[in-house]
Every structure is written in C-alpha cells, then in structure tokens.
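ugh ok fine here u go
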Amino acid sequence: MTNATLLHILIASHTLIAALSVASVAYVYYAALAKRHRAKDTLLVLALLWPAAIVALLFANGMQCVMQMWAKQLTGQHTGWVRDIYWLPESWVRLVPPVFTSLYALGIALLCGRRLWNKKR
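structure:
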C-alpha cells in the first residue's frame, strides 16, 4: 500500500474515533437526563470507558495524539499539523481536548447529581 492510501485509512479511522467520542459524550448526557442506571446500562459503561481509554492513550504517548503522529510519519512532515480527520478544521483541533473534557465532566456530574437526587427522594 502507498503512503497516500495508508493516510486515507488513518483519516477514516480517526474520523470514526471522533464520531464515537461525540456519541459517547452524547450518551452520557442522555443517560443522565433519562435516569438510566449505571450498573444496568452496558452502553453507558462503554460511553464512560471510551474517553477514559483515549485519555490513557494520550498520557501513555506523552500527550501527543497517536493518529497525528502517524499522519506526520506517513506524510514526512515533522512539524505543524497534518490533516488526520476528515471534517475538523485545523483551527478547531486545539479546542477539542478542553471542550470534550469539559462536556464529558459536566455529563458525569449530571449523571452523579441525578443519582444523588434520586437517592434523596
């Protein structure tokens, strides 16, 4: 396979990973608002574990995105940013970690708050 083909496979994979990340955050909010019970909801467990796995991977790689690192290797570019996701402009890339972390933390807080609220009633 050529580097161009491998890069398109990498971009498609990273786009899928990003879509799953958005879906997992959305499901955490859905679970919090729909009063889903954590222990009985397999999708909620997966939605809680998915971002945790991504963060663990980032920490293991020195806070560098593995996909970005591979994209740079495939293009031969070692500085700057290489497109490694189809729909995300470069100017938004730097906003992804703080925005997703904030949204995810708020969703977990809502989930925990809903659980505490239900216990008090």
